[in-house]
Design brief:
The mean pLDDT is 86. This protein is α+β, with helices and mostly antiparallel strands and 257 residues long. Helix 1 runs antiparallel to helix 2. The chain starts with a helix and ends with a strand. The strands form two sheets. The chain has a five-stranded mixed beta sheet, sandwiched between helices. A two-stranded antiparallel ribbon has the order 4-5.
Length: 257
Amino acid sequence: DMRQNLDAMVTELSQSIKDTNLDANLFKSKIDSNHIKLNKIENEGFTIEEVLTVVKSLVNDSNEIRVSAQHFSEQLAKAQSEIDALKAQLIKTEHEIHFDALTGSLNRRAFNKDLQAILEQHPDGLCLIIADIDHFKVFNDTYGHQLGDQVLKSVTKRLNEACQNGTKLYRFGGEEFALIVPNSQLRRARQLAESMRRSLEKLVVKDKRKGDNINNINASFGVAEFILKDSVNTLIERADKQLYEAKRLGRNRVMPI
């Protein structure tokens, strides 16, 4: 839709430029013709009637080019308005492409793009944390999807609050989150994951329909550090492996120890 709108605007503006340029060339031709007549007035001495005829011609030609210029100005103003609208739509579209609609966090598409860029430019010290809310299906089955959504939003907010020094949070899918931790080390990334885990343990979400407080929210974390020749997939696989191990050992923990 944006491409079609842009194409239509460019086509219309292009035609307007051609028309205005044609009018300007025609006006120049008439000005040149009238200029010759004015020189004759000075050199040969025209009558008052002849002078008035030349002046009327100049006035008429000037009005024509003024109308043409006014039309072109209106077209430019219209184009500028459409460009502004397209810019706003582009910003909105980019936001929708890279941000999760429910939680407002960056999404999997943004994660893949950002991780690939870091791996290509400055991967040294890069760490990846993958977190998964424990027993999330229980929240949905017990309290309903609305409360499940509220849990996801609250977890997102709590994890985001812990992000610093360039760390970014992404909703990886479902109840799973990923954090890209640049310029770090496995030990420090693990400490960050542990602080997040403890923070989630203190999280309380209120069930507005029943008036109950849900305070049994926790998550498991898997951490991996970049090694030479890592790709997006191999780094994710190692973090995933640590996450599965955390789940296997009883959940609500960070791996590796």
